[in-house]
Each structure stands twice: as C-alpha cells, then as structure tokens.
Amino acid sequence: MSNINVGIIGFGTVGAGTVEILFENRDIILNRVGSEIIVKKIADLDTQSDRGFPIDPDLLTTDAMEIIHDPQIDIVVELMGGKEKAKDYILKAMENGKHVVTANKALLAEHGEEIYRAAEQFGVGVAFEASVGGGIPIIRALKDGLSANRISTIMGILNGTSNYILTRMTQEGLPYSEAVKEAIELGYAEAPPTLDVDGTDAAHKLAILISIIYGTPVPFDDIYREGIENLVPEDIRFAGQFGYCIKMLAITRNLGDRIEARVHPTMVSLDHIMANVNGAYNAIYVEGDFVGPNLYYGLGAGRRPTGSAVVSDIIYLARQLCNGISKPMPPLAHASPQEKEIPIQPMETLRAAYYFRFSANDRPGVLSKISGILGDHEISISNVIQKGRKVNGSVPVVMLTHEARESSVSKALSRLDSLDVLTDKTMVIRVEGE
Which of 291, 294, 314, 333 has the largest CB neighbor count within 10 A? Predict the structure, then answer.
C-alpha cells in the first residue's frame, strides 16, 4: 500500500496539533509505518483562522460528509467534540468501511457500546488513545503492555484544569474563583470550566479506562462524581496541618463481584505518590496482580500532547492497513468480552476516613454536641483542630475520622447541619489511604 489517506473532522486546538505533527514529522512517521500518511482533507466550519502553520486551502472544506464519502480516504479522524453529530459521523464513516480515530471521551463514555458494536459489525478499527490523559499512552498500556494482568486499582488525576486550580490554591493560597480566572486566562480552561471542575470530564475518562479493563462499557451515570467548587483555602490549609494535600482523584478498585468507581476531591498524604503531581499535569496509577504498581505521568491536554496521541492512533491503524490485517483488534482489546454490565458499588456502602470542617458559633459545648452525634453513628474521631480565630464570623472546628461508612456519615451530617450552633453546611472530604 503506497499511501494512507486521512481525513480530519475538526480543525480546532487538537485538530491543528494533529495536522502539525503529521506535517512536521512526516519523515519519522514514514520510516516507522513504511507508507506515507497523507492528509487528504480537513473539515471545519472555520476555514479562515490561522492555525500557526501554512495550510493548503484546497485541503479545507466545511462539509464533513465530503470526507466520509471519499472512497480514497482510509482513516477518518473525529476531533470536533460534542456527542450526537460526532456519533453520526463516526457511524457513517464505519458504514463506509473507514477506520476511525477519535479523542471524544464524552462520546465513548456515554455511547461507546454503540460505536464498538458498529466497528465490529463493519470490520473496521477504532482507536482512542487521546481520549484519556492527553499525551500519556495509558490506553495502549492497558490494552497491550498490561494485558496479561488482572488490574486491581486505578487511581488518577485525570483533569489538568482542576489540578491546576487546586495547585494554585495550595501553593499561593488563592481563592477558588481567582484560581479559575487564572486557568482561563492561561488557556487551561474554557469559560466556564463546568465539566472540568464538577468531575464530569474525569468521570468520562474513568469510564473508558474501566471499559478497557473489563472489556465492556460501564453505566456512566452510576459513577459517583463530586466537584471542587466548594473548596476554600482554609480546607487546603487545614489539610496541610494534618499532613495531607487535596487532589481531585478518579478511583476504581476491583472488589470481586463489583467495582468502586468514583471521582471527587480527596485528601492524600503529603508523601503519597499523587501529592506532587501539580499544575496542569495528569498522573495515572495502575496496579496489576503480576506487574505490581505502575505510574504514568505527563501533560493531560493541549494541542501538541493530545495531537501526539491522535497521531499514534493513526500510525497504529496505518500499520495494520500496510500489513494487510483484515480483522482489526476488537475496540476494547478483548476477544471474549464480559457480557454483563459491571455493577458499580453504591456510594453509600463505601468505607473511608473523612475530613469534616464545621462552622460553629463560639460557645461552650459545641465540640461535645458534634462528637456525640458522630458517636451515635459509629464515627470515631482521630484528630481535631479547633481554632479560636473566627472565619467569616464563625469558629472552624476541623476533624479527621477513622474509617466509617458513607451512609453513616450522610445520616450524621443530616442531623449536624440542623443544629443551631452550626452556621453553615459542613464541608466533607474523603481521605485516601496510604
């Protein structure tokens, strides 16, 4: 096969990074594939903006169907984002016998089953390395490098925007709103960065990782998610006094007959492997039964890192085409995937240690009332900080607990938040073990 022709739908940040790499590293790619990868057409509604490098206007079109119906195009790369339109384009491309590359984590997390089924039905490949972790090759690691292992745990900082915001709040004491404003100004976040800070983006990525481990999509809506919007610098300062920092973690564990799957702010020890992952960087910890612990670290977003991952998928599919492989690897790399949906542990059954910050009136007996209610729900206190200095008119009472059940914590807080001695809703942060 002399050339591999590629059509790209979406010429924004990642699309431009993808084309730039294909142009700039053409010789390297040719040497590693054995055939030249040619960008035959690029579709985007905006064909006029400067992408930072010269582009032949004849390559550009506003009609994505021009790519999908072109019989000379071998691989369609979907980088437009969104769900419904992108799904329609991908399914139509597969129906036309084209292999597909996508970075669309929301689409795969919520509609992956339909896409994977279509790929097998039409005998085409679908690759999505860029959907999780930007330039970090975590998808290929799970599909190939760790494929002989039972994966027991994945713990990840999967969203660079939220990690940048928490880093600035930690290192500079910035309020949440100022850290968000800075992230937007630096291009780490869109305005408003809702899906980044509320846990949805990380949950999409976690769903994809879980689906690769077990060979079947997971019910995305069952993944618990909680954002960082309510954190204040005081929480970060108190966490530091206890010997912890706060990170937004995506966590899954194999519990035998079910799995944990949750995304939320988490206190981790300052000597924890995730504690020094700062700025816009991502990190993914994976533990397998034979390989043991692995850590993958790098830039989780951006034009060049994500473009690098997209091009790695193009190269992967191009190699199969060059070698005449007629039946591509199944999308989730399982020859006999698990047929049943993976049950996700209900959040109320989780057992963890907890951080509580109460806002209390400065009067005697407050601490005894709080500890009494916690004791009624079998929640044991391991450490307490009670500051005499008022914050927003109230005295903060901060506690760490021993391991407790989530349902017990919810019931206790329901009683506590109705006390007249407490002036605001209690802040709760789960604590991850060493």
Answer: 314
Q: How do residues 60-94 score in pLDDT, each as one tens digit? A: 999 999 999 999 999 999 999 999 999 999 999 99
Q: Is the pLDDT of residue 388 over 70?
A: no
CATH architecture assigned to 3-135+303-322: 3-Layer(aba) Sandwich (3.40)
* Cβ density class 241-278: b for 16+ within 10 Å, e for less: ebebbbbbbbbbbbeeeebbbbbbbbbbbeebebeebb
What is 138-298's CATH topology? Dihydrodipicolinate Reductase; domain 2 (3.30.360)
Least confident of 107-121, 175-189, 334-348, 370-384: 334-348
- Please give the CATH architecture assigned to the domain spanning 347-431: 2-Layer Sandwich (3.30)
What does the alpha-carbon distance between residue 141 and residue 394 come to, in Å, rounded to a whole number?
50
Q: Where are the domains of the chain?
A: 3-135+303-322, 138-298, 347-431
Active-site residue (options: 40, 98, 205, 247)? 205
Short-list 135, 131, 103, 130, CA closest to 297:
135
Both tokens assigned to 135: 């330039």
Catalytic residue flag (residue 327): no
Report the distance separating Cα 228 and Cα 162, nearest Å.
8
Question: What is the pLDDT at residue 392?
Answer: 65
